[in-house]
Amino acid sequence: MNGYFVKLPVFEGPLDLLLWLVKNNNMDIYDIEISRITSQFLEYILASPIPPDAAGEFLSMATLLLKIKSSLMLPKETEEYQEAVEEKTLLEDRLAEWEKIKKSGELLLEKFRGRKFFLRRDEPFKIEVAKKPNFSVFDLAEIFAGMIKDKKNLFETVTGPEIYLEDVLKELSDRIKNHPHVRFSELAAANPRRLYIAVLLLAVLNLALKREISINQKKPFSEIIISRNTAARAKRQEANHGN
Amino acid sequence: METEELKKHIEAILFISGKTVKKRKLAELTGASEKQIAEAAECLQNEWNSNHGIILEEIGGGWQFSTKPEYADYVLKLYPWKGNLKLSKSAAEVLSIILYKQPVTKAEINAIRGIDSQGPIATLLKNSLIKTSGRKNVPGKPRLFRVSENFYHIFGIKDETDIPSWDEMEEE
Amino acid sequence: METEELKKHIEAILFISGKTVKKRKLAELTGASEKQIAEAAECLQNEWNSNHGIILEEIGGGWQFSTKPEYADYVLKLYPWKGNLKLSKSAAEVLSIILYKQPVTKAEINAIRGIDSQGPIATLLKNSLIKTSGRKNVPGKPRLFRVSENFYHIFGIKDETDIPSWDEMEEE
What we know:
- The complex is a heterotrimer, with one copy of chain A (about 240 residues) and two copies of chain B (about 170 residues).
- Chain A is mainly alpha-helical and about 240 residues long.
- Chain A has two domains: about 15-115, no CATH class; about 165-240, Orthogonal Bundle (Arc Repressor Mutant, subunit A), CATH 1.10.10.
- Chain A has ten helices and three strands.
- Chain A has a three-stranded antiparallel sheet with strand order 1-3-2.
- In chain A, helix 1 packs across helix 4 (about 80-115) and helix 3 (about 55-70) packs antiparallel against helix 4.
- Chain A is rod-shaped and about 120 Å long.
- In chain A, about 25% of the residues are buried.
- Chain B is of the alpha+beta class.
- Chain B has nine helices and five strands; from the N terminus they run αβααββααααββαα.
- Chain B has helices at about 5-15, 25-30, 35-50, 75-80, 90-100, 105-115, 120-125, 150-155, 165-170; strands at about 20, 55-60, 60-65, 130-135, 145.
- In chain B, the strands form two sheets. In chain B, strands 1-3-2 form a three-stranded antiparallel sheet. Chain B has a two-stranded antiparallel ribbon with strand order 4-5.
- In chain B, strand 2 (about 55-60) and strand 3 form a beta hairpin.
- In chain B, helix 1 packs across helix 3 and helix 5 packs across helix 7 (about 120-125).
- The radius of gyration of chain B is 19 Å and the shape is globular.
- The mean pLDDT of chain B is about 85.
- The interface between A and C is large, with 37 and 47 residues.
């Protein structure tokens, strides 16, 4: 075995092995001696463990080499000989290309080693300078002070006389008869307990559904204005009159 | 490590981090004392804050690089999805409770507001204004909330001593 | 914009980004010409590269800040995963194929290597050294691969001229 396979490098694939054999034999990559290469290639794959996932590729390369080798022994005029010459040229081109890729891979590895410790953040600033809140920390203090002062929130329990929707509906109807526009907050202020406010809200929705009133709120959390729905009322009176 | 060298270490660490690195952490990484870190950082701050597009800021008990406000527009141009932070009234309330009562559980927040605060808490977490930090040793082991480092940055306050007292607010 | 001011703008943009910003993008953002950008950046480079823990680098057709290698240890203590990238010989080879033949399909890569390249391709994708970019209009519509922005950073490549051309590879 001519000492070829002393300290064998690990070959990734058949081209890798082929290139190594070409170099080791000091052959010209564009003028491979197919018969010598073929026998060495076969010796290697018979003698060395081939990576199982690449066995197919090694074997198909061996087949190709054997085919070229045998065809090249035929007379030059034969079609097989011509085909084999073409296949040999194709193989040499592939090998030349592979050699360049290997070289460039080595170059990249070299660059990589030199660059390993140039670190960058790789992402934008976590802290977003443009993200300005719509209020300041002083506003937060004020909000908190307001909540703490307003302690009734904290200790409210639902006890006392029950509140009935019918009663509140009647109250609301009476109120609206005399006042064309009423603020929800005014109504709520009459009995600032959560249960009352909840029932009041139901009453308002109830009358709105019957089109007795219309309700208006400019934006969330702003005042709710309750207005007597004169148009609807007029319409109904008209209808009654007709009867 | 001498100050000049320490300064370069701090620069490299703060640049890669892109957010606040605590004094303690800087000391731990470089092997310098917190006092040395503070000295080097102040030194860096003087150099940086006069001549560059970026400044070094002391925020939330540590240091960080920030862009000068006049260059802040570039953040929006480079990353247009980062808009202004708009907080709802309820989120602001929850945030103020966490700021003044931290560490605080959701149940405690709910008790103060008289209403469930799941939504605002989720919003604040999503915007990294608050963080969870441990659990309270009561039945159910509820999570505790605190304001985050990002909170300090966004509201431009250095550390806890920079938070206005709400009692003072009341007196006004 | 005069150069002194332009320098600060470039600093701010590069700090915000944390990775390469192309010359063209810098020009677009600041309203300066690419020539002015290059001048200001070279000027900045001289200032930065002597006295700081971070340096300004020309990478992938743009500019970026990186830490100096001598401070990497401290940064890696904070972000250990940043030093985790390992590149095998086969990954480097697949990367070379993609670099010179891009956009390229897996089948084309396999043909050049004479062996299946699923493993190295997955590793390169995971490490953001390559990216998929569209599909080839052949039966099966296979995905096409290109090198990514990160590729230029990892290998410290200024621009295309910084890579030996395919023909030059042969001459050596």
